[in-house]
Write a structure and sequence with these properties.
The complex is a heterodimer of chains A (307) and B (265).
Chain A: H1 2-16, H2 23-46, H3 54-70, H4 75-97, H5 103-122, E1 132-133, E2 139-140, E3 144-145, H6 149-171, H7 174-184, H8 186-191, H9 196-222, E4 224-225, H10 232-245, H11 252-269, H12 276-290, H13 294-306
Antiparallel strand pairs in A: 1-4, 2-3
Helix pairs in contact in A: 2-6, 2-9, 2-10, 2-11, 3-4, 3-9, 4-5, 4-9, 6-9, 7-9, 10-11, 10-13
Chain B: E1 8-19, E2 22-28, E3 31-33, E4 37-41, H1 48-55, E5 63-68, E6 71-72, H2 78-84, E7 86-88, H3 101-110, H4 130-139, H5 155-168, E8 173-177, H6 185-198, E9 203-207, H7 211-217, E10 220-225, E11 228-233, H8 235-240, H9 242-264
Parallel strand pairs in B: 4-9, 4-10, 7-8, 8-9
Antiparallel strand pairs in B: 1-2, 1-3, 1-5, 5-6, 10-11
The chains are: A mainly alpha (307), B alpha/beta (265).
The complex binds adenosine-5'-triphosphate (ATP) and magnesium ion.
């Protein structure tokens, strides 16, 4: 019940936020929030640290961007296809990675993501360093024109809510129960007859598909799909967002994404722009050292202890 | 003729495991009779846990065969062996610490529901398993703790929960690796009785250091030493075997006899 109230409150805030903030900025936060939530599904609920999630964000963006520029597809179809492409890529990544454990899992995902990066760098359709520019937003169902930033924002909000709902449901499903059991004690889960790698694999595909959904949407918001989104920096950034906000909490990654995106936005414009990576690194270290369960994790602890 | 061949549930043939030249398990021929509580004993490092790891395929045998109900299961994956009905516990307690006690048991019940990949369903669909889970918790005396987060349970209760979780998958053969290790006197008694109770209609293979527990429970005992079987028999036979006394049990049996003599007088 409490959760429901909180979700409604957040929804109200999200609906009226464009009255105060620039809608493109808000849409950017939502895209990264979805990306971080998708990542958190793996790290927080299956205990799998992927260091290659940029590949999915980027793939979503490139596929959707390419389709919007070169075909007459409407944006919702282009987004779905971007998501499917990311899901397929995730199935391949996952198949190879889930056999490995701990740091080796992270290394396999990083290596595969680097491969994907070089592919996009070389492939003719991505325009290399320049990226796909001028991606048209189109009109949903051919009816609702997205070129207006406010319309775009509410479309992104709808996508975010859908993605957020899928993640929430996955976490609180029979499948989610097994995932948690695997995270808690993998050997025990095996000894009860669960083929843990298949569960990890399915979780990986869901996570990859939703990360691509975030990337597809982002390409429409910024009319751009570029190498930035597939670079390993981006894989690191989503880890940062999730850890700062609170890994394994539903709301943590959203807050983390909000904080990181806001900092980047305000810092990069000002004279501190050159130091942005140092400042972010500093924030990260402080967060990880002072509250290891992230901001939301810390708040939950505080609530448990005091109420 | 049929009555003369005992019903063997699990058999190993020349089971061997080497770790980089060191042979931890060497040519072990085990034969577990259906319905028995079979104890596997031996000094530290004898290879008992390694045998368990081989039987459940957490380790791959270097050579040898494993037959379960006369079927060769040597090549199966660990989860597949579990689904055949061979369920193991671990030497260190194996629970899901941040799930509730009820959820721990429900995870085990859930597998046979066939909805374990259904990420689109709500977890409340699992509530229909709650009654069964509570029954199982009841059978190990934990029903009052159903909603406790498992990490908060005492050590003895965690081990009882493990047994309830194992029972939930209705195993044909239970492998228990030192179920009473690290327990106080009282808990040892409770868990011993618990194992006795759940052994009805089941077969249990257990590693156990506590000889009182072994003498109370075991129908048959296999003694392992440096990876090989030293001897096998019932408690009387094994404890009277001079080799066993010398190799491992000697001091412990004497002290135990002294102890029981003191208690008797
Ligand atoms: N994965 C492994 N790699 C290398 N050596 C191992 C491995 N597992 C076990 N061993 C070695 O095999 C031998 C048998 O170990 P095992 O754990 O089976 O003994 P145990 O009989 O269960 O002993 P305990 O009573 O202490 O539990 C030991 O010498 C151990 O060091
Ligand atoms: Mg052992």
């Amino acid at each position: 019940m409490n959760n429901l109230k909180l979700n409604i409150l957040l929804l109200i805030i999200a609906v009226i936020a464009p009255a105060v903030f620039y809608p493109v900025f808000l849409a950017k936060i939502l895209c990264f929030a979805l990306f971080a939530c998708a990542f958190n599904l793996l790290l927080g609920y299956a205990g799998l640290l992927s260091f290659g999630h940029a590949a999915f964000l980027g793939t979503g963006g490139y596929v959707t961007g390419y389709l919007m520029i070169n075909t007459g597809l409407s944006p919702e179809i282009a987004i779905i296809l971007g998501m499917v492409a990311g899901g397929i890529l995730g199935a391949i990544f996952g198949k190879l990675a889930v056999k490995r454990e701990g740091i080796y899992f992270a290394m396999v995902t990083l290596a595969l993501a680097q491969l994907v990066f070089f592919f996009y760098l070389q492939a003719p359709f991505t325009n290399g360093e320049d990226g796909l520019q001028g991606v048209p937003r189109g009109a949903i169902f051919g009816l609702i024109d997205l070129s207006n930033n406010y319309t775009m924002y509410y479309f992104v909000l709808a996508i975010f809510i859908l993605g957020y709902w899928i993640i929430n449901r996955t976490v609180h499903s029979p499948f989610g129960q097994v995932l948690k059991a695997i995270r808690e004690n993998e050997d025990r889960a095996i000894s009860l007859g669960y083929e843990v790698n298949r569960y990890k694999w399915v979780a990986f595909i869901i996570s990859a598909a939703l990360a691509s959904l975030a990337g597809s949407t982002k390409a429409l918001v910024f009319n751009l799909a570029s190498l930035t989104d597939v670079h390993w920096h981006m894989s690191g950034e989503v880890i940062l967002m999730t850890l700062v906000g609170g890994v394994g909490t539903i709301l943590g990654p959203i807050l983390g994404a909000g904080i990181v995106v806001s900092m980047q936005n305000y810092l990069s414009g000002g004279e501190l722009g050159n130091y942005i990576h140092i400042i972010m690194g500093f924030v990260f270290v402080v967060c990880v050292l002072s509250f290891r369960s992230g901001i939301v994790g810390q708040l939950l602890k505080f609530k448990r202890n005091n109420f | 003729m049929t009555h003369s061949t005992p019903d063997v549930i699990l058999q190993t043939q020349d089971l061997t495991k080497s770790f980089k030249g060191f042979t931890a398990v060497s040519g072990v021929n085990l034969s577990i009779q259906r319905g028995h509580i079979h104890a596997l004993i031996g000094p530290n490092g004898a290879g008992k846990t390694t045998v368990f790891n081989l039987l459940t395929k957490f380790l791959k045998p270097t050579s040898g065969k494993i037959l379960f109900n006369s079927e060769d299961i040597t090549k199966l994956e660990p989860a597949a062996i579990a689904r055949k009905g061979v369920i193991r516990s671990f030497q260190i307690s194996a629970v899901f610490p941040h799930l509730t006690v009820l959820e721990n048991v429900r995870i085990a019940l859930q597998r046979k529901e066939g909805t374990s990949f259904h990420f689109w369903k709500h977890e409340s669909t699992l509530n229909r398993l709650n009654d069964k889970a509570v029954d199982l918790l009841d059978s190990v005396g934990l029903s009052d703790f159903a909603s406790t987060v498992t990490v908060d349970l005492s050590y003895g209760r965690k081990r009882a929960l493990e047994i309830a979780t194992t029972l939930a998958v209705e195993p044909e053969l239970m492998l228990l690796d030192e179920p009473t290790q690290g327990m106080g006197h009282e808990d040892v008694g409770l868990v011993t009785e618990l194992i006795k109770t759940v052994s009805k209609n089941r077969t249990i293979l257990m590693v156990e250091h506590n000889l009182q527990v072994v003498s109370r429970l075991a129908d048959r005992i296999t003694v392992l030493q440096r990876g090989s079987i030293l001897t096998e028999g019932n408690y009387q036979e094994v404890s009277n075997n001079p080799e066993v006394r010398e190799a491992y049990l000697g001091s412990e049996i004497e002290t135990e006899h002294k102890h029981s003599a003191e208690v008797a007088s």
